[in-house]
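Usage

Read records sequentially. Each one opens with the input sequence:
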Amino acid sequence: MAARTSRRARRATTSRARPKPASRSKSAARGAKVVRRSKPARKPRAAAPASRRPARRPPGTARPSRRRTAAARDRGGAPVAMPNAIGFVAEHLDFTSHDLAGVRRFYTELLGFSNFRHDPAFDYLNVMLGPGVSIGFMPPMPGPPEQWRPPREPALYLVVEDADRAHATLVAKGVTFDQAPTDMPWGDRAALLRDPEGRMVWIAHRARKG
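and closes with the structure output:
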């Protein structure tokens, strides 16, 4: 009995010597969890340079929609012509050339404008530069000296919806024409006038099929 009592006494002494773990309340435990789950604060982003910032739209203006942007172009992908009084739809410049072969090689081979057409009947070279923009070259045409044009002087050739209607509109404004709308040998119907410095300006519409 004495041995058993001494063992119990040693156990009781040992259990008293061991420190008990500190008890935490539920609120403290919750607080610890919140601290562990919280994320470190993000560093503030540096302000973008002024050149990269998008320009602000004036008050009361809306962002243009994609439909409006698409509607601003015609079926061929070229921008719609700016407002004008003659129904302008395309631009063409005519040049007189004394070296048609060299000009053809320069524009169609070196510069690579592969969309071109040569009319042997008039020895006329037409080169498309883009949607609605073209240039033409041909030998000097016979005629009086005032009709002769040096190689670097172009004639402005404005393609319109209806040459007769454009001619009537300008005549009503007092414009004088050198030539009324006429069916030309190359198939267009064109009228000729001059700008205040004497440059030749053609107003023509393409030959209509059928």
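Summary fields computed downstream for this record:
- The longest helix spans residues 2-17.
- The longest strand covers residues 88-96.
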